[in-house]
Write a structure and sequence with these properties.
Low-confidence stretches: none
Strand content: 15-25%
Largest sheet: 7 strands, parallel
Structural class: alpha/beta
Oligomer: single chain
Shape: globular
């Protein structure tokens, strides 16, 4: 009989992992009631704000003001407050002694990561007691506190139970009001049965959706599901602090808190590391995996680097300019960062020449007009100063759809114009040697040649596996005739009396790789493909109303633009 590790042992091992190492979580086994948690918040608040308090502790009436402000309607409202003023989340207190006036106390400073005023504590077996609004007592497993406030809550099950039992338990607790009032600050839930671990942004009962559960992956997109490994990678300090501050987004339009997925976080950190080395590069993330949100966070994080004056986000169409600006503005509503849209070239010049450290969203066309205007023969002295200032900006360009948004020629012109520029491209379809651009002198022909090395990748294979994008329904059709396949098999495996259909999958892959590309890049093969689409797939593609079937939005993908053009001519 299999003996499963008890939940108590799993809980103990998790806490031991969290408190191990230097400057990690402090275990507080004395904090297991709401009263004890509030007293702890009060103690840390007074300790961190001695100057503002003038060493006069808060009275009971004053702390009731604090408690009201730290009791939130939902996690989204808590996230808005946590964004703070310039990254400092504060409360306002009218002192009972009128002569002391109104003071503002800092509860959490987002920038104090693994130091400064931040106190990191871990508690377990907290009891949410029955009250007028809560029908029964509830015990919570493990909770991580920042300056006394619950930020990450963890529900554990043993391996005998599916991890989804933890999710259902949290969902039930939310419905019962067990997360009110002091736990209303929670920003992240973690569920685990020790073998399988997931995380999700905190939300109210109606908005908490299991489809948003994320598993962690490492830099090479390998799953990290064991709870101890997850704790080491995600819940240790400073990563846990970053998860609920730097890697969370408050979406104003959807009124939702968003936690980034691991591949987005790895991309952001890879760009941050590259910028420290003054290196450019590109990110290969598949279409539909949230590149807009990732690039927004990249833009914000780059502005935290003192030697970058502006981040310029380039899109390749006016409609995308407006769409991206709208998304960025929604994300930035409560972030300590400004998003500058540029309706015209004059607005672009004004934004770039200002002293504000901002994210500027613009198109390549507007940048082109900017350069042309600055090259004009007659420029006033005032404008010349502005233009010189722009030329000497230390800028980081972030390029959406970088495989097409900026041509090699245009990038070279921009590099000659902006004296200190870093480039970070985002694409779902990089250009490689196999489908390189047409040769134009010494201009770059591939995405790597244009931007630098690939900093992170998250391909459609990983995205489908993670259910981050919709998968494919594949019906494999052999590209070569049966007789051709058998002849190739005999040539490749002369010592084996075997037909193609009898080969192992690995041998079939090896054989396929040995076939030269020109076997597919000819009109005879293309006409066979067209015949299969037009004459053998009529019902599937819904070509005729009486036959029914499904009408497809796309029926063909090719390895290059030239190949697509060849197919187009043959279809005609």
């Amino acid at each position: 009989m299999v003996k499963f590790t008890s939940e108590q042992k799993i809980e103990e091992d998790l806490i031991n992992q969290l408190i191990s190492g230097e400057s990690q979580w402090i275990y507080r086994d004395d904090l297991r009631t709401e009263e004890a948690l509030w007293d702890n918040v009060r103690s840390i608040l007074e300790q961190n704000n001695r100057a503002e308090l003038k060493n006069i502790p808060l009275t009971e009436q004053e702390f009731r003001q604090v408690k009201r402000q730290l009791t939130f309607l939902n996690p989204y409202e808590a996230a808005k407050w946590l964004s703070g003023e310039n990254g400092k989340a504060k409360v306002e207190v009218q002192r009972e002694d009128a002569s002391l006036g109104v003071i503002r106390l800092t509860v959490i400073n987002r920038a104090d990561i693994a130091g400064g005023t931040t106190v990191y504590e871990v508690i377990n077996q907290y009891q949410s007691s029955k009250s007028e609004t809560k029908k029964r007592d509830r015990r919570f497993d493990v909770t991580l506190l920042m300056n006394g406030l619950p930020m990450i809550h963890i529900e554990l099950k043993n391996r005998q139970h599916p991890y989804m039992d933890g999710f259902r338990q949290i969902h039930k607790y939310i419905k019962e009001g067990a997360f009110d009032p002091i736990f209303s600050s929670t920003q992240m839930y973690v569920i685990s049965n020790a073998s399988d671990t997931r995380y999700i942004a905190a939300a109210d009962y109606d908005s908490l959706n299991a489809s948003f559960l994320s598993k962690w992956v490492d830099l090479k997109n390998r799953p990290v599901t064991n709870y101890i490994d997850f704790a080491r990678d995600v819940l240790s300090i400073p990563q846990a602090h970053r998860m609920v501050t730097q890697y969370s987004v408050t979406d104003r339009d959807k009124e939702a808190l968003i936690l980034l997925r691991p591949y987005q976080i790895h991309a952001i950190e890879a760009i941050k590391d590259a910028s420290k080395r003054h290196d450019s590069g590109y990110i290969w993330h598949t279409t539909g995996s949230g590149k807009t949100l990732t690039s927004y966070k990249v833009a914000c994080n780059l502005l935290q680097i003192p030697n970058i004056d502006k981040t310029i986000f380039i899109v390749d169409r006016v409609d995308l300019d407006q769409q991206t600006t709208s998304s960025f503005t929604s994300y930035a509503e409560f972030d300590p960062v400004s998003i500058d849209e540029t309706d015209n070239v004059n607005e672009l010049i004004r934004r770039l020449s200002s002293d504000d450290r901002t994210v500027v969203v613009t198109t390549i066309q507007k940048l082109n007009h900017l350069m042309k205007r600055m090259e004009a023969e007659e420029i006033s002295e005032r404008n010349q100063k502005r233009y010189n200032k722009i030329k000497n900006l230390k800028v980081a360009f972030i390029v959406d759809e970088c495989h097409r948004a900026v041509t090699p020629k245009k990038k070279r012109e921009l590099d000659q114009y902006f004296h200190y520029a870093l480039w970070y491209g985002f694409t779902g379809t990089p250009i490689f040697k196999e489908n390189a651009r047409a040769e134009q002198g010494d201009l770059a022909r591939t995405t790597e040649g244009l931007y630098g090395k690939r900093l992170h990748e998250y391909t459609v294979k990983e995205a489908i596996n993670d259910k981050a994008v919709l998968g494919f329904l594949v019906e494999y059709k052999h590209a070569l005739m049966q007789s051709t396949r058998d002849a190739l098999t005999e040539a490749m495996f002369p010592d084996r009396d075997i037909a193609y259909d009898e080969l192992s999958d690995d041998d079939k892959i090896k054989l396929e790789k040995s076939i030269p590309n020109d076997a597919y890049e000819n009109d005879k093969h293309r006409l066979n493909v067209i015949d299969f689409i037009v004459n053998q797939s009529r019902r599937k593609l819904g070509f005729t109303a009486e036959e029914g079937g499904k009408a497809y939005g796309a029926i063909l993908t090719t390895s290059s633009i030239n190949s697509a053009q060849e197919y187009y001519d043959l279809f005609k």
